[in-house]
Design goal:
globular, single chain, Rossmann fold, alpha/beta
């Protein structure tokens, strides 16, 4: 999907787990107003892309290398004819995949901006080591394609504003819900045990010594101070290890910074503009 504008270059927009292109219509417009041509797509298994399991509500992947293949194909077949070194803007799971690309494909992007990248999963009521051990056991004993505990209840049709953990903005939350109600086939509930296990493996790789230090691309990481989905502490620590990394924390933001209230979003875009202006 592209937004044609007076070109300041191409921005590759990468959404998070369970998201879809249309959710970012406002963001695409804001990037277009800044002079960027926007290139984006739906990850396999979500949005308008084909599902990987028979149950279309399950978010599932066997390994994050499959997402690497999605991004590589998109860059080579769609983005490269437009730009040899695009800018990237990625949220949450999209940020995890983008970090893998920055490491594995040096020079593929001119710079990268991250909104609450998934570097550690928040386990909330469970100790992190216990959550990791349970996930490993579930996949070992053949439950990889089953919903993780409680994840079936994350069907968007079962979650109201007061029960969600992603934004403080009622209007933007309602806008997404309205779109899903009109297009129910693109919605996802929560992930399978297999998806979570794949995420743990990927996060361990990205957080390992030497990984961040090898990324030479200019990076801006914007963390959400009230994040209950991913661990903001991991984002702070990772940013410090980047040779050309900058970190900003929006202390009053929930996880979905780009779907937050106007005050939070204004601060994000101010940081984005300042970062891009120095490239």
């Amino acid at each position: 999907m592209f937004e044609t504008t007076p070109s300041r270059g191409v921005c590759v927009l990468l959404g998070g787990q369970s998201e879809f292109i249309e959710k970012y219509a406002e963001v695409i417009g804001e990037l277009g107003a800044r002079g960027f041509t926007v290139a984006t797509f739906d990850w396999r298994g979500q949005g308008g892309s084909a599902r990987t399991l028979g149950d279309p509500l399950k978010a599932h992947v066997g390994d994050f290398a499959e997402y690497d293949d999605d991004l590589t194909s998109f860059l080579d077949q769609v983005v490269k004819p437009l730009s040899a070194k695009p800018l990237a803007l990625a949220h949450s799971m999209g940020g995890q995949i983008l970090l893998r690309a920055l490491h594995d494909r040096p020079g593929a992007f001119s710079a990268a901006v991250f909104s609450a990248p998934m570097l550690a999963i928040s386990t909330r009521d469970y100790a992190a080591p216990l959550a990791r051990a349970v996930t490993a056991l579930q996949t070992t004993f053949g439950q990889g394609e089953e919903f993780a505990w409680g994840m079936a209840a994350r069907d968007p049709f079962l979650v109201d504003f007061d029960g969600q953990l992603c934004t403080s903005d009622r209007v933007r939350f309602a806008r997404t819900q309205d779109f899903l109600n009109a297009n129910p086939k693109i919605r996802l509930a929560g992930p399978t045990w297999g998806w979570i296990e794949a995420a743990y493996r990927s996060m361990a790789r990205v957080m390992a010594p030497g990984f961040a230090e090898a990324i030479q691309t200019p990076v801006l990481i914007v963390g959400a101070g009230r994040d209950r989905i991913v661990g903001v502490e991991a984002e702070r620590a990772f940013a410090k290890r980047l040779p050309r990394g900058t970190y900003l924390e929006l202390e009053d933001s929930e996880h979905e910074i780009l779907m937050e209230n106007d005050s939070i979003r204004a601060r994000f875009w101010n940081a984005f503009d300042g970062f891009v202006s120095k490239l």
